[in-house]
Amino acid sequence: MTEFEAQVDRVVSTAAELSPDELSSDEMDLVDGLQGLAALVTGGLSLDDLLAAVAGFAARAIPGVDGAGVTSIRPKGTTMGVAAWAVTKPFVREIDVIQYEMLQEGPCITCMQDRTAVISGYLGGDRRWPRFGGRAGRLGVASSMSLPLLITDQVVGAINCYAYDSDVFGEHAVQLGTQFAGPAAVSVFNAQIIGEARDTAAQLQRALVSRTVIDQAIGIVRARSGSTAEEAFERLRQISQTENTKLREVARRIVEDAVSRARARHT
Asked: Which of the following CATH numbers is that of domain 4-197: 3.30.450.40, 3.40.1160.10, 3.40.50.261, 3.20.20.70?
C-alpha cells in the first residue's frame, strides 16, 4: 500500500473499486505522461517552461485531475520558500496564490513539510487547513492530492492535483502519482541546478563588466589628476559614498563623460 496522509473523516477509494478497463486506461495514461517527461530536454528549457511542461504531463498521467500544478522550492534555513510554480488551469493558480502568498497554509505545504503524499476528499471541511479549505471550496474545488518531489531525502518541490468533485483521489491515484513524481523530481532538480548555474554565470559576467568599467574610470582619474591607482580608486569610493551611488555607476558615469568629451573634441 502506498503511504499517504488522508482526511480523517473521509473514506478513501482503492484500486479494487475500478474495473480492469479503467485500470488499464489509467496505466496507459501514466505511460504517456512518463514518456512525455522523458522527452523533455531540461537544458533547453527555463525553469518556468519546464514546470509548465511537467504540470501538463502530470495532469495526463494522474487519473481524476481537473487541474494540476508543479511547484519548485528553494530551501531557506529550516523553512522552504516557493521559488516558482506553473499550472494547467487558471483556477489552480488562484488556489496556489491563496496557499503560498496569502495564507502559507494548504496541502502542498503540508506534503513538502511531511515528505509524503497528502489527499483531501472535501477541502471545504478539511480541519487540517481551516482557512485554506474554505477558500478553495468557494472556488468550487473539492478534492486535492499533493505529492512531494524528492531527491533522496531532499524536497525540491511538489505536484498538486485538484478536482471539482468530492473524494476523487484515492490509493490508486496516489500510487500512479508517486510513480510519476519520481522522474518528475529529477527533471525539476536538474532544471534548478541549470538555472542556478546560469544565474551564477550571469552574475560573474556582470562582475567582470563592472570591474572593467571601474579600471577604466581609475585610469581616467589618474590621467586627469596624476594620482596613483590607489588614490584614484579612493576618489571613486568617496564619490560613491557621498552620492549614495554604487561604485560601478560612478565609474560608468566618469567613463561616459570622458568618451563624450573625446568625441566633442574630434567633431
From this structure: 3.30.450.40
